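Hi all, long-time lurker, first post. I run a small reading group and we've been trying to get comfortable going from sequence to structure in the token notation. Rather than ask abstract questions, I figured I'd post a concrete chain and ask someone more experienced to write out its structure so we can walk through it together at our next meeting. Sequence below, copied exactly:
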Amino acid sequence: MSAWESAEERARALIGTWERRSLGVVRAEDAAEFARAAGESDPRLVDPGRADFVVHPMYAVSLLRAAADPAEFRPDGMYRDEVPGTDGLDVRLMAGGQDVRWRGEVRVGDRIEMRRAVTAVERKSAGFLLLTVEKTYGTADDDTLIEVTERFIVR
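-- Answer (accepted) --
Happy to help. Here is the structure in token form:
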């Protein structure tokens, strides 16, 4: 069985199984750093000392881990388990699109949790998969703030 066929089998077995991961507490300094790196100049996004400081809407979606251990990375720089079903397999991965829907506002001090599940696995051609993953980002109290549909190309 090829690596991409193994990825397909693993991903199909994960369909509908939700996993939860804590992404830690939103810190103003980190959110401002993200906004500056994204090219923002609005002082409300880049100056955490302002009374009207707000967290950039894409900040929580950019969070992948609360902390990173070098052993968690694949040779290509992605997290080993970022694309469900591919951990440890010699496959090529690409982002295949993202749809983001905001349901609430992320605030400094929020403890963010991400939930995700594979919702579809499509074989597009020989040696080519499209995985669809649904994610929700919310508070530890299960208040959903952001919903995301991501697609990953696996070869």
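A couple of things your group might point at:
Residues 3-14 form the longest helix (12 residues).
The first strand starts at residue 19 and ends at 25.
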